[in-house]
Amino acid sequence: MKTVLKISVVLIMVISLLYIARENGSRAMLRNANKQILESAIGNDTAVFFVGSSRVQYGVNDSLLQAALHCKIFNCGFSNATFFSNAVIVTGLIKQGGKKIIVTELSPLIPDIPPGSSEFMQVVGIYQPGHIHRLLQNDGIFKNRQAYISLLNQFLVNSITLENEIKSLFDPGFGKRLLTGFRYKSINSGGYKKTDSFLEKSDLESAGNPHPQTSRHLKYISQLASLAAEHGVKLVFMLPVLYRDPIEKELVRSVFHSLPDSLRLTYSPGFLDQVSNPAYLYDIMHFNKNGADKFSSLLVPVIDSLRRTF
């Protein structure tokens, strides 16, 4: 027990020293410079951000939406993203300021931050451990020790591994090129021939059975909604259209129907009829290119409606 305590103390001291060095050194300047990358990309117009998992990454064609809506669209979808990592990104985007609409995918609340999400936050200058700590206060430290361990580990690794910062230092255009990598990715092939993974009309009409994790999600959502209102950001939450696990659908369906209308992205009545086609699938929970194009084209009037009421 004493050995574990000593290791913990040393780890905290090392992280503290790295934090001081990072905040007072060139990395702080690079972080501020990278922050300008996204701000300059947005300009003065309303920008729309889709935050979520690989379902967003492979399903939301930002170029198609941008051409149709004539505004900046950013696909912030990452493999293995959870609702917790989504909430961290959303917090950073909100606090960064600017006129934004943020569409956030509902998913399981697993306390983890995948590498893609972490790198994106660093590149655009919104990676702040304080955001994570404030979000975790909803559940208490002991209930989220996995997240704290993950946070400490990632913070330590990111403080030592400065590859992207070094590249940015010697190549001013590196950050902008890296940002373009966090966009929609298309898949031309397909291999799943069923429709059993699609969201159904009944899922939109009722909440189904109450889920014990719903209240936990709502605490996070309430915090994000208050922050968005404070900064003048429009925040809505969307149901994924595709699911591998019916248990996940049961959870997010319950959460979605517990939200007020102002926080929900609502699909039109014929939306699911038009998108629920096995020819649009790459696998059980991802669209291929044709599916992403169809899904995105159906989102155009939905997002346009959000813009008009913002």
Q: What global shape is seen?
A: globular
Instruction: Give, in order, the helices and strands.
Output: HHEHHEHEHHHHHHHEHHEEH
Radius of gyration: 20 Å
Total beta-strand segments: 6
Share of helix, binned: 55-70%
Beginning-to-end CA distance, first to last residue? 55 Å
Q: Would you tell me the structural class of the helices and strands? A: alpha/beta
Average pLDDT figure: 80
Number of domains: 1
Fill in the CATH topology: Rossmann fold
Widest sheet: strand ordering:
2-1-3-4
Oligomer: single chain
CATH architecture label name:
3-Layer(aba) Sandwich
Major β-sheet annotation: 4 strands, parallel
Low-confidence stretches: 18-27
- In DSSP terms (H or I, runs of 4 or more residues), the helix count works out at 15
CATH class: Alpha Beta
Report the portion of residues in β strands.
Answer: 5-15%
Write the layout of secondary structure elements.
Layout: H1 2-24, H2 26-42, E1 47-52, H3 54-57, H4 62-69, E2 72-77, H5 83-96, E3 100-105, H6 115-123, H7 129-136, H8 145-160, H9 163-170, H10 174-180, H11 201-205, H12 214-231, E4 234-238, H13 246-257, H14 271-275, E5 281-283, E6 286-287, H15 289-308
Parallel strand pairs: 1-2, 1-3, 3-4
Antiparallel strand pairs: 5-6
Helix pairs in contact: 1-8, 4-15, 5-12, 7-8, 12-13
Quick recap of the structure?
This protein is α/β, with parallel strands linked by helices. The protein has helices spanning 2-24, 26-42, 54-57, 62-69, 83-96, 115-123, 129-136, 145-160, 163-170, 174-180, 201-205, 214-231, 246-257, 271-275, 289-308; strands at residues 47-52, 72-77, 100-105, 234-238, 281-283, 286-287.
